[in-house]
Design a protein that fits this description.
- With about 240 residues, the chain is an alpha/beta fold.
- The chain has one domain (about 10-180): HUPs (Rossmann fold).
- Helices cover about 35% and strands about 10% of the residues.
- It is built from 8 helices and 5 strands.
- Strands 3-2-1-4-5 form a 5-stranded parallel beta sheet, sandwiched between helices.
- α1 packs across α7 (about 175-185).
- The longest helix has 15 residues, at about 105-120.
- This is 7-cyano-7-deazaguanine synthase.
- Keywords: ATP-binding, Ligase, Metal-binding, Nucleotide-binding, Zinc.
- It catalyses: 7-carboxy-7-carbaguanine + NH4(+) + 2 ATP = 7-cyano-7-carbaguanine + 2 AMP + 2 diphosphate + 2 H(+).
- One of its GO terms (molecular function) is zinc ion binding.
Length: about 240
């Protein structure tokens, strides 16, 4: 993962979910000097319309190329409250180490595969993903070891002369760390969406909303998007 060292790095694909982590990853890649290609995937998730709107708006804000890929195989496979209307999205439990119902089986491998295909086809030098430490407590495909292993897959599975770095800059960071860095970089967080349940307003009580609100609250900043509820997640 050495694409960020020395000289002009070239082009980077950013897996753009529409959320704040991937938007911050885009800002980090831009600061490093990459020309950005934002790649968004709609796979039948509950808030896919809002996520697409946010990802495309971020691409415009970052002056980035934008491509949406639509696939239904993750929702067809099922096994996640994000894609199965018959499974409720659970309320936030920020202390749990269990794999949450929102886990989409092996999603990151699917998304990274598409991003690497795009990167190889368009002569890009890196793929950025915004996964972070509070993700991998519950999501096995957000662990640093997963990205290290996927880098090996990329190295042996692309054509000779291809050098695509998998960049996951936040794997040791908290959500608060990410928000703090993003505020420093001027990330347009008003153009991001994290809620697992609703497209407007955000519920404020699912895991994604809770971690996001907690990050802003810890920094003494107001999250710029609208919420149905804004619980205080700074209480022990």
């Amino acid at each position: 993962m050495d694409a960020m060292s020395g000289g002009h790095p070239g082009r980077a694909v950013v897996l753009a979910s529409g959320g704040m982590d991937s938007a911050t990853a885009a800002a980090v890649a831009r600061e490093a000097g990459y020309d950005l290609h934002l790649l968004h995937t709609s796979y039948g998730q509950r808030t896919e319309t809002k996520e697409y709107e946010c990802a495309s708006a971020q691409a415009e804000a970052f002056d980035a190329a934008f491509r949406q890929l639509t696939t239904d195989h993750l929702s067809a496979v099922g096994g996640s409250s994000l894609t199965d209307e018959g499974v409720d999205v659970a309320d936030a439990d920020l202390e749990s180490d269990e794999v949450p119902s929102s886990y989409v089986p092996f999603r990151n491998a699917n998304l990274l595969s598409m991003a690497v295909s795009y990167a190889e086809a368009h002569d890009c030098d890196a793929v950025f993903v915004g996964a972070h430490s509070e993700d991998f407590s519950g999501y096995p495909d957000c662990r640093p070891a997963f990205f290290e292993a996927f880098q090996r897959v990329v190295d042996v599975g692309t054509k000779e002369g291809t050098d695509i770095a998998i960049e996951a800059p936040f794997t040791e960071w908290s959500k608060t760390d990410i928000a703090e860095r993003g505020l420093e970089l001027g990330v347009p967080y008003d153009l991001t969406w994290s809620c697992y349940r609703d497209e407007a307003p955000a519920c404020g009580t699912c895991d994604a909303c809770a971690f996001r609100l907690q990050a802003f609250q810890r920094l003494g900043e107001r999250d710029p998007i609208d919420y149905a509820e804004r619980p205080d997640y700074t209480e022990p």
